[in-house]
């Protein structure tokens, strides 16, 4: 998709704030290493730009992505830190993993036992399934067999032994119980296997925030992802700790492209689902569901000159209409996510309104929205500002 550099809808991304957050999370958890999770293009913020900022400041020790193509993008951009691909992967691209020094995830004993001969060193991460039930080892004997295979194969280098908690961002009694069960399961499966504890990686964003003092959790290498954005990754189900000082990293803006006087009772947008409640002004802005501002956001609001203005009518593919309190000049800025004066619309608010989570809101914001990078680091790393 072409980035619409000439279209007045944009996302502002503060690289200094993102780096601060990563450093603050490390301090909060007392982690030895930080593996910054930059999958889905850095949760929509720009994986390459974030990675360059984190490498420049030594805020990250490695990068974690979801697939090989994301990893190769970072390598081609000149990133030299370790890069780890999560998820199961077949054997067809092993040469690319080896040649580009990219860590592959081992999902099962069967995968490891049938591994083809390697022409170089393959770095691997051992997935442990403690209850997520996606991929990974869930049998202690098979983990022991895997460890022996790794230790006897000079072409294999163990990068990490990790697990993922399914309910670390939930406050319910059921979720707390399930988190405890996963922590116990880790102890049963891994702790007595003789692995170097420095290789353990157990804490994702939510585990890093709300379980940072749990003695059962290793913080040898944490994996913050969505948390880098400074949002509440539980969607507000759990309160953010008062002493964890994170900054908001991104905001989304547009401009008024058309302003017109509309009489009371006039239907608006597709389906004529709403009519103008009174005589007044309506603005059209160049953003819609193809930008990630989904149709279910009808009835929500944007901020114009420090005041909330309601979205009227169905959100269309490329345009959205807003009821104004007065006539504003074309080109007036509207805030979709962010702060303007005393008013603020957070990603969490948008997620609540959409009946979803902040991850979906942030990663759904389309590539055609230009990203404008701010902060000192944007100048240092030469981030593209659209």
From TrEMBL:
Q: Which CDD domains match?
A: PLPDE_III_AR (cd00430)
Identify which residues the record assigns to the active site: 39 (proton acceptor), 270 (proton acceptor)
Q: Where does substrate bind?
A: 134, 317
PROSITE patterns named among the record's database cross-references: ALANINE_RACEMASE
- Which top-level enzyme class is recorded in the Swiss-Prot or TrEMBL entry? isomerase
Q: Which organism is it from?
A: Oenococcus sicerae
The protein's required cofactor(s) are namely: pyridoxal 5'-phosphate
Mention one GO molecular function. Answer: alanine racemase activity
Which named protein is this?
Answer: Alanine racemase
